[in-house]
Amino acid sequence: MSLSLLLLLLACSSHATHFFGTVMTYTPKTTNNDGSVTVVIRYKLNFHLCSDSALWTCSIGYFCGTESAPELNEVYKESSGEWCQTEGIMTRQVPSNAPFQLILDGGNWVNNIRNGISRWRAVTLVELRNRSDTGQANRSPQTTILPAVRVPSNCQRDFNLLAFDPDGDEVRCRYGNTALSECNPCTTPSVLNLSSSCSLSFSPSSGSDQGPYAVQLVMEDFPRQTITLIQADMLWERTTNIALSKLPVQFVLKVDPAVPSCTEGLYLPKFLPPTPANRARLYTSVNQTLEINISAEANVSTISELLFSGPYNIVQTTSGTGMFILRWTPSEGEDGESHPICFVVQAVLSPTKYHSELRCLIVSIGNGPSSNATATPQAPTTSPVTTKETTAASNQIVIGLRVRISSLSPLSDDDIRNTVIQQLKDELARQGMPLNFTLSSVGGV
Ligand SMILES: *[C@@H]1O[C@H](CO)[C@@H](O)[C@H](O)[C@H]1NC(C)=O
Ligand SMILES: *[C@@H]1O[C@H](CO)[C@@H](O)[C@H](O)[C@H]1NC(C)=O
Ligand SMILES: *[C@@H]1O[C@H](CO)[C@@H](O)[C@H](O)[C@H]1NC(C)=O
Ligand SMILES: *[C@@H]1O[C@H](CO)[C@@H](O)[C@H](O)[C@H]1NC(C)=O
Ligand SMILES: *[C@@H]1O[C@H](CO)[C@@H](O)[C@H](O)[C@H]1NC(C)=O
Ligand SMILES: *[C@@H]1O[C@H](CO)[C@@H](O)[C@H](O)[C@H]1NC(C)=O
Q1: Dist. CA 142–CA 365, nearest whole Å
Q2: Residues 380-406: pLDDT tens digits?
Q3: Burial 272-310 (b: 16+ CB within 10 A, else e)
Q4: Is the CB of 261 under 6 A from ligand 3?
Q5: Which ligand is nearest to the CA of 394?
Q6: What span, in angstroms and rounded, lies between the C-alpha atoms of 218 and 243?
Q7: Which of 29, 30, 31 to mutate to test the pocket of ligand 2 (most atoms within 8 A of CB)?
Q8: What's CA 200's distance to the chain center, in Å?
Q9: Given CA atoms 281, 283, 287, 288 in this order, what sign does their dihedral have?
């Protein structure tokens, strides 16, 4: 009796087919008095049906702690029923900040995968040890992806994935490694070239490459200089070529029949202003609704919908043909976090679907330069106490920022010039500001 029940359960779970990939990220929340750590793990599960699901399990040999019942919510369902993305949020309490590994294992991917993958397998390494540079537990890179992205076989396209690290680490991508059991197996899609900076490029092909491919990537964060990881009384050195955490980024690439023209705005939708740039960083604060306006045109095909991936409680509205608004209101528990959002505009010319390029954003909550809740594609500035703008004679603009700098040791003018100004400049560059301006200190108070 109990044996037949067990077999039935196994049969049910292995019958969940039509997998479209997964992504997982994590955020450490609190270190408790007994040394235990609470970590919030978010993941996307992509299947043909919203009712399909799969469970992450603890890898043998690790302690993954106790888990609150995971919440699973629908993010977006493609209108023709092609796929559905759900977001899972699980809170785990682990007895110490030792690393642990979670695994998703089952079958099968969608049918007829061109690179021969049928079983799914994904691995996340959660590294929570305290870092000597931040004094806090390591945070994972933040990224997401749609279940499926399309490109006509005759067009060139780059998929520049979001690779944002809240600790400022360098984020690199590689294909999964079968020998490390990171997928089952990890056969790479022959039609894509991957750069370590997480850009995938598709080059026009003969057309014989059409069909779905399973893209099974691993995203890792590397410290920019040697750091020490601290666990209880033990120290571990981490150089710039040893990954801290490891995340799976898996999705389906669909190579479609050739299109008469690859020019954006005809068959393939083209983004128009004020759509934020790819990899833009936006800021909002707790309880303040962020509004992201997205606009696109396609003169031959008909724009039908905005496909997106992000926190499950994003609300989408359509404000006109090819005009969409995504709204998201972060809650108190998300203060200080950064959340990824990706989107693609889909158009149809029956029976064919066309995708715009992929764009992704990172939304930082509460720690931004301003609490302005509207999305602007420009790079943000640092937190000024006061700003003053004057137009100089030569048509240049001078902006004054009054900033307060705290330091444990006295700062000389040279320290300010060489260290503080340089760091400010680096930060502005990191935020996407063109470096064609002069930043100087005009004296302290
Ligand atoms: C990948 O890059 C190499 C070298 O740049 C090139 O020869 C090859 O055609 C590319 N492959 C694809 C599928 O784009
Ligand atoms: C890690 O850092 C946090 C915050 O700085 C601290 O409360 C905690 O005790 C540290 N944990 C370990 C194991 O060093
Ligand atoms: C699409 O039509 C609009 C309005 O007629 C025009 O401004 C735009 O250039 C066209 N786009 C392309 C790619 O031809
Ligand atoms: C956010 O809204 C919740 C519920 O309305 C409220 O309890 C909380 O105080 C608000 N927090 C902030 C920072 O506004
Ligand atoms: C977004 O679109 C709405 C409706 O068209 C408009 O009222 C709003 O001003 C737009 N916001 C931005 C930031 O462009
Ligand atoms: C700096 O570069 C930006 C973007 O290329 C441009 O819009 C701006 O006018 C430039 N500013 C100066 C002072 O050259």
Answers
A1: 13
A2: 333 333 333 333 334 455 566 666 666
A3: eeebbebbbbbbbbeeeebebbbbbbbeebebbbbbbbb
A4: no
A5: 6
A6: 11
A7: 31
A8: 15
A9: negative
